[in-house]
Design brief:
The protein has 475 residues and is α+β, with helices and mostly antiparallel strands. The chain has helices spanning 2-6, 23-31, 49-58, 63-79, 90-93, 116-129, 135-143, 202-226, 231-240, 250-266, 271-280, 286-301, 376-381, 386-398, 423-429, 458-473, and strands at 16-20, 35-39, 82-89, 101-104, 148-151, 164-165, 170-176, 181-186, 229-230, 310-316, 319-324, 331-334, 338-343, 356-357, 400-409, 415-421, 434-440, 448-455. The protein has a 4-stranded antiparallel beta sheet. Helix 6 packs across helix 7 (135-143) and helix 9 packs across helix 10 (250-266). The longest helix is centred in the middle third of the chain and has 25 residues, at 202-226.
Length: 475
């Protein structure tokens, strides 16, 4: 006992530290030359008691059911094969649509609450349909509620940016035969003075007429000659060539032109010339085809009950909304500003509208920001750094349940893009999906002012999580 009492304690000559939480402590240890490993831990859900309790149940007693449902959702998102098969009108695609009704992007909204670009697009659609002689008359009809409004998503139609669709507007038909689901999207209007960019001038209205009277008949003929187009097989090639299939679809559009060119050259229809000129100058042509393909997958995935995966993510420029698989309930928050932006000369945040459009369906299916790591175009939005683009993909990976088996990023050793946004992870980490997107002028009706990255608001995800917890706890 005396020997033990007299023995001096020995201290370690070197230490290795695991730091949990604040990086300041890790920095101090490292500054003293010691080995340190930092664990990025934070209180789940920002410490909100109700959200923490819900996460405890959804990761606890409900976890087995949710994980099995999520695996099926991811399987459907990853294995469906959407085929472009034809072109219909909105009235044919949505036969139950009430008379004198327009479809619009995002969650439900009234004309008075819609942002300026969407109101202009609505007016252009009303004039194109022949319900008004000009934008001013169209404004009166819409303002008095004489023309109905309905979210396009609720009719399995997705529309980009500030798009409004009249009953006679042409839409692509994309069939996911594995799931027996069909979805629709309009023909891309191209760039310049166009309604989807928030213009209602004569040029924008003329472009809508061109799509209906020239582009749609030619595309129908092309599909009759070429047969169905495997949309996502083409998109997968384009991702490997630097497209994210959201802000950049140049490679995908060029691949599509290669598919259609022999058939286009052989058409007897003289309209082929005007369509060829339009197609060659429209680098965003593939965007809406990809959107319809993505929507056909989320329609199938959305039939799975008890999952925590987001299957709708859309914005109308005023509100941002999501829906979960197995539920038709919208959860909304204010539409965010678009950050990390590149602007045209003399444009900036002061002239920018808020985030808008249904194109965020791409981020839910492994495209857009999910594929940012391989896209130099997205890197330009983030200051030119491919590391920053990879971090954007990593942001989605942190909140996703799986990886794509078809969209591979060469810069990431051919890793699959993140797939299946899990609302549990979003709320737990406080990390929301990012969306690569264009930016419109907020009020002048002059079109696009730039492109950037929008961050989804957390509030709608927190509400969706609470609803999922309530639904599963009832069982």
């Amino acid at each position: 006992m005396a020997d033990l009492a007299d023995a001096a304690p020995s201290l370690p000559q070197a230490v290795s530290v695991v730091n949990i939480g604040l990086p300041l402590f890790a920095d101090s240890v490292a500054a003293q030359g010691a080995d340190v490993v930092s664990v990025d831990w934070r209180v789940p859900a920002g410490g909100q008691p109700e959200a923490v309790a819900a996460l405890g149940r959804l990761y606890g007693r409900h976890a087995g059911q949710i994980d099995a449902a999520n695996a099926e959702v991811v399987r459907r998102l990853d294995t469906g094969t959407p085929l472009l098969t034809g072109v219909q009108t909105v009235a044919e695609a949505a036969p139950g649509l009430p008379d004198r009704t327009l479809l619009h992007c995002g969650p439900a909204i009234g004309y008075g609450d819609a942002p300026d670009p969407l109101r202009r697009s609505m007016r252009a659609a009303v004039v194109t349909q022949g319900w008004a002689a000009g934008p001013q008359e169209a404004h009166g009809l819409l303002d008095r509620g004489e023309i109905g409004l309905s979210p396009a998503n609720e009719h399995r139609i997705v529309v980009p940016m500030a798009t409004a669709l009249e009953p006679g507007a042409p839409v692509y038909v994309v069939e996911n035969r594995a799931g027996g689901t069909t979805a629709f999207a309009p023909i891309s209007q191209g760039t310049g003075d166009v309604a989807w960019f928030g213009c209602d001038n004569p040029a924008a209205i003329a472009r809508l007429g061109f799509l209906r009277d020239v582009a749609a008949p030619v595309i129908r003929q092309l599909l009759e000659l070429s047969g169905p187009l495997d949309v996502l097989a083409l998109a997968a090639q384009a991702v490997a060539m630097g497209d994210d299939i959201h802000v950049r679809t140049q490679a995908a559009t060029n691949l599509l032109i290669r598919e259609w060119l022999p058939h286009l050259a052989g058409l007897a229809d003289p309209a082929r010339v005007a369509f060829a000129r339009f197609l060659s100058g429209n680098h965003l042509f593939f965007l809406t085809i990809a959107m319809a393909a993505a929507r056909s997958l989320t329609e199938w995935a959305g039939q799975v009950q008890g999952a925590s995966i987001v299957t709708t993510m859309a914005r109308n420029g005023t509100t941002f909304g999501i829906r979960l698989a197995g539920s038709d309930q919208w959860f909304t928050a204010g539409a965010p500003e678009v950050g990390h932006a590149l602007y045209y000369p003399d444009q900036g945040p002061q002239t920018s509208a808020r985030d808008i459009g249904d194109s965020a369906v791409l981020e839910l299916t492994g495209l857009g920001a999910a594929a940012a790591a391989g896209s130099p175009a997205v890197a330009q939005l983030l200051g030119g750094s491919m590391d920053a683009a990879a971090a954007l993909t990593g942001r989605l990976a942190a909140v996703c349940a799986g990886q794509s088996g078809r969209f591979k990023i060469p810069a990431l050793e051919m890793a699959g893009t993140p797939l299946g946004v899990d609302v549990r992870r979003v709320v737990e980490l406080g990390v929301t999906p990012a969306i690569t997107t264009g930016i419109l002028h907020r009020s002048a009706g002059t079109g696009q002012v730039g492109a950037g990255v929008a961050e989804a608001p957390i509030g709608c995800f927190a509400d969706a999580l609470a609803d999922l917890d309530m639904r599963l706890s009832r069982r």
